Every structure is written in C-alpha cells, then in structure tokens.
Amino acid sequence: MQRTRETPQGGVVSPLLANLFLHYTFDVWMARNYPKAPWCRYADDGLVHCKSVKEAEAIRAALELRFAECGLEMHPTKTKIVYCKDGTRKRTYPQTEFTFLGYTFRPRMVKNAKRNSLFVSFTPAVSSAALKAMRQRTRRLNYRNRTDLSLPDIARLHNPILRGWLEYYGRFCPSALYPVFRHFNKTLVAWAMRKYKRFKGHKVRASLFLEDISEKRPQLFVHWKRGMAGAFA
Known about the structure:
alpha+beta, 5 strands, 13% strand
C-alpha cells in the first residue's frame, strides 16, 4: 500500500523530518517569544529553564497552544515542572528531579574542593536506567562463559565500550559509574572461576587474583587505568 502521509516508525528519514519540524515548531518559536529563557532540545526531548514557577506555568501553557497549532501534542506525563532544589533553594515542591539524555538531575551532596566542605547542589549524574542498560549489555556479551578468551582478549573487546561510557557518563559525577565497573569486575571473577580449575568454587581466590592483576597491570582495562578499578567481590 502506497503511503500518502506520515513516515514509518524507525524509518531513516523520520528523525531528520522530526528535527526539521521541531526546529520550526519549538526552537525558532522559543527564540522569538522567550529570548531570555535558556532552553535546549535533543530530538523530541527538550528543557526550558525558568526563573519562577509562574514563568514555567506560563511557558508550558503557551507551548501547549503552539504545539496544538502545529498538529502536535506534548507528552501528558513526561512534560512537567521541576524545582531545582539545592542548598539555597529550599522550598518544597512535588517534583525535584528529572532525567535528560541519560542523566538524572537532582539535589546531591557535592564537595567544594577549595573550601574542603560539603554542600547540596542540583547536579547531573548517570541515571539508574542508563546504569541498568550498561549492566544488561555486559551480560549479553556473556564474558563469564567465554573461556576461549584470555583477559587481554576481553580487554580488547570491552575497552571501547567502557571508554564510551566513561567519556559520556563520566563527565559529571563519574563515581556514579562505580556500580557498572563493579558489575564488570564481578563478571571477570565469574570468568576466572570457569576458565581456571584452581579457582572453581573459590570466588575469593578468583577475586584476589584479579585484584592483584589490576594493581600490577592497571593499563589493561580503561577503568583500572583511570583509578576506578573498584571492588571485585
């Protein structure tokens, strides 16, 4: 059947057309109507930073009308007003966090290196959904059962993946990636227990074996080299 309107979901041209349409619907409109409100957009996800709840509510209402004029609708549950709560903004609101491009922005305890003190800041870190997806990818690669591979083989295969995660998600609060590195290290422990007879049924021995390698050859894996080896047990 010949298509006369719309594009198929997953089609190659769909993201391009969506970006072109949203550039007209959202980007140009925001720049013209709210030049003092900082905003950003990636594909169909966008953020607008407002100075007050009143301004946020006004812009949201205006955007709903704008989208309707263009035959679009903002997501009814994902579209929300979030209060950027921190050490100085202490009021109480129902929404104090949001996730954007794999990062969750919320109040966190951070350290002031110059003053050597802790304070609450509204900052980003890798989201729990992104952490889950990274662990799932490691599981799918099934290294724990690949006894045909050596440790350098696994490093060659997985280092590009680890490097990509670190370069993207490690830009803000890199310590939030520790659960991913620990999961990968535990995968290596399971691999060692299957590959070497002397470690079969001896998780502690296998953990100490890999911990020793991480200290002697930290350049083997990206996170080891960056001082983020983490735990093996």
